[in-house]
Amino acid sequence: MKIIVCLKQVPDTASVKLDPVTHTLKREGVAAVINPFDLFALEAALQLRERVGGQILALTMGPPQAAEMLREAIGYGVDDGLLLSDRAFAGADTWATTAALAAGVRHLGGADLIVCGKQAVDGDTAQVGPGLAMRLGLPQVAFVKAIREAAADHLVVERQMDDGYEVVSLPLPGLITVVREIGEPRPPSLKGKMRAKKFEAPVAGAAALGLAEDQVGLRGSFTQVVEVFAPGAAGQREMLPGPAEAAGRAVIDRLVADKVILLGS
Amino acid sequence: MALIIDKTACTGCGSCLDACPFGALDLVEDKAQVNDNCTLCGTCVEVCPESALSLEDIQRAADERTATSRGVWVFAEQRDGVLPEVVAELLGQGGRLAADLGVELGAVLLGHGVEALAAELFAQGAQKVYLADDPRLAQFDDGIYAAVLARLIARERPEILLAGATALGRSLIPRVATAVATGLTADCTGLAIDPARRLLLQTRPAFGGNIMATIICPDARPQMATVRPRVMKKALPQPGATGELVRYDLDADLKPSTQVLEVVRAIGEQVNLTAAEVVVVGGRGLGGPEGFDLVRELAQALGGVVGATRGAVDAGWIGHAHQVGQTGRTIGPKLYIGLGVSGAVQHLVGMQSSDVIVAVNTDPNAPIFSVATYGIVGNLFAVVPAMLARLKELRG
Q1: B113/B26 Cα distance (integer angstroms)
Q2: CB distance A139–B214 less than 8 Å?
């Protein structure tokens, strides 16, 4: 089975500290890591390769420093990788991101299965997996928590829903996004780490992928960010004084007034 | 496309370097300089005290759909013939947006044997219900559901489509947006209309809830958004209200791409910290396992679940499944209440994207107060009973 795992490099939220003045995360000296949810995708691919054999390719779009992440993926046991990198890719929304990733999948000659993490921890959209499946005309199952059966032409997976789960048969080629329950990521192997040392990620830009500049990056995006602001702006932080009894009653009144607690629903 | 730095205005203060999530800015000869890691996210533009940073404005050709699309649609997700609460919330919000735009509110209903739900949708404010009722839609399949929605959108041309940010919505709607080639904003917590440009202003948390972003889709239609459950206000139901039912017959070429073999509903009590709208967390300040009785009582009164800090879990007062924080679950509920939680950074990282944070602690210097929307310095064993009593009073 030929498996492509989509990875995203994100800022490491575990290494950040809170700024005591602005109450925002301080990100100086940002460490960049593999999106934690993508580690579950990687783990799912490794489990599948153990079960049915085959090859795993890691695919990412990002700045040049994302090559380091692909090297890390090799350490986990991935066979090869491809970095989609071009200044023209910057500022991509999920539509423009899937344009580049779909071209990357084609560049790699397609796959029997594409595995994505359920979402990235920086954007939290969960849109790239399903969008990519649509771009490639592939069937999809999102939020997969277990793979029950793996055959050459189909998978049987458990899809997490809000009210439980469903057992779904997915024909291949296809795409899945996976959640944490798929299994804790294994640590990188010694053999993998040795290979990673020598690994140089191949890089493809827009031209090599046959993409025009207006199909990718900010220019190729439908959505635009028009305003960015801090949540809970100054003045929204309030200490409720007084004896415990009064403060306890006051906080409920505030939450009701703010419509955080809905009465009679 | 680029980040533009006005070198004459830049004072080299470094605020942008601190704010950049990608390490894409450097100080070169005391002036900010952008490197290849820039993703044009715009975070630095907002923090620069000198307004020295800007994003190059790009002009895109609007496609003809922007001029011809009219109407607000709500995707009426149903599971086993039941509409989740979020559908009523979407109809409430959709109705307000439609009124601002002077257009109709429509609901789209897909399934098999679900026609009876149309009455509910009319009662909740839908003026039109587009119904695709077909055995091929009996089980949820992203492929056929997306194809039907995409064809309906192409035929009817709504300018806005809202869906719930549920598991089903977050799986299906990105596929639909890609199929019709338009923009989509995930997990919105605020929606409004810019009347001058007829644009939907879509506000959502970004960077793990650390910032809020308002997003538009100026040049393609429909403008699509998934909306977090329990954020929007429902409309007052009008029982017996009617509207126009528009049937959509499925084309013969459409068939499901996947097959649902079995549906398993969650049974019994389980800790669903990440999906919970309200989480009441207990820390070491509870003093012992019996302290969690009060936590449970408050969680129950608020329809929420019980969380715990690492300290409380390590002390053996409650199971690890309840743990919130870097080594437990990361949560972002609508309401977080910390009882006897001091707020170690590892815990704050796991909960600070919560919309509203209430902290009760005896130590006025506890770090959790730095992120709390409402803070109470006091004994939780006195504060919480007062909260419960007040809730009971208000609910009558």
Answers
A1: 61
A2: no
Please tell me the distance from the alpha carbon of residue B214 to that of residue B363, in angstroms, as a whole number: 37
ipTM confidence score = 0.88
| Minimal Cβ distance to A123: which of B58, B206, B265 | B206
* A116 and A154 belong to one structural domain: yes
Place of tokens 């959505």: A223
Contacts of A238 in chain B (CB under 8 A): 373-375
Residue A142 and residue B358: Cβ atoms within 8 Å?
no
The dotted CATH code for B65-247 is 3.40.50.620
Distance CA B203, CA A173 (A): 36
Q: What is the pLDDT of residues A201-246, one digit of tens each?
A: 999 999 999 999 999 998 899 998 888 776 554 446 789 988 999 9
Are residues B386 and A245, on separate chains, in Cβ contact within 8 Å? yes
Task: Name the minimum distance, in Å, from the CA of A156 to any CA of chain B.
Answer: 9
What amino acid occupies position A91? G
Please give the Cα distance from B230 to A54 (Å, whole number): 44
User: Selecting from 3.30.750.24, 3.60.21.10, 3.40.50.1220, 3.40.1080.10, what CATH number does the domain B278-395 have?
Assistant: 3.40.50.1220
| Minimal CA separation from B191 to chain A, in Å | 13
Q: Where are the alpha helices (DSSP H) in B132-196?
A: 142-156, 167-180
